[in-house]
Write a structure and sequence with these properties.
single chain, ABATE, two-stranded antiparallel sheet, mainly alpha, 6 helices, Jann2411-like fold, two-stranded antiparallel ribbon, globular
Length: 185
């Protein structure tokens, strides 16, 4: 599957957004307007004006809707959720070349709110995975104490953990120690 620069940026943004949700007692990754401003700047989200508390509320609601896409149990459910997100954002595809990037497509309408911007661009990025028959690449970490979202871009669709250096290694070390203890025991 060919993933363009814009699609990759949108996928990174949607995964990071979903992973800001407070789960299992963790703090909200978007606790205030400053955190939203940092998120927007960190993901180089263009064409958003001054952010307000209304934007923060809208992005938090959107975050839950994107999380539902990652939790969807089948493609039809995921497609319906994505369709709702994209339609509600008033998607308006247009070609643009800004900030040193070559021609690419923006799916949000000019002057759209940051929530509509994210819903349109990130929703379309997820839609491309559904269309390509690759929805199963939208995953949650399989570590028992971690449910972070990620997109499995491995060649053979075998990635199981959000980060192999943390969750993956931690589980492999625990399994190794359990085997050693059993063998010694």
């Amino acid at each position: 599957m060919l993933i363009t620069h814009d699609t990759r940026c949108a996928l990174d943004a949607v995964v990071d957004l979903v992973n800001t949700a407070p789960e299992d007692g963790a703090a909200d990754g978007l606790p205030d307007l400053g955190a939203l401003e940092d998120f927007v700047a960190g993901h180089r989200i263009s064409d958003v004006g001054t952010l307000t508390e209304l934007d923060l509320s809208a992005v938090r609601r959107l975050r839950g809707r994107f999380a539902a896409v990652f939790a969807a149990t089948d493609t039809r459910i995921a497609a319906g959720l994505i369709n709702e997100l994209v339609a509600a954002a008033g998607t308006t595809p247009r070609l643009t070349d800004h900030d040193g990037y070559d021609w690419h497509v923006h799916y949000f309408a000019p002057g759209a709110s940051v929530a509509d911007h994210l819903a349109a661009d990130c929703g379309m990025a997820l839609a491309f995975f559904v269309v390509a028959g690759e929805r199963e690449r939208l995953r949650r970490c399989e570590a028992p104490d971690c449910r972070r979202a990620f997109v499995d871009l491995s060649r053979n669709r075998s990635r199981r953990y959000c980060d192999s250096r943390t969750c993956g290694n931690r589980l492999h070390v625990a399994a190794y120690r359990a085997r050693r203890k059993e063998a010694a025991g």
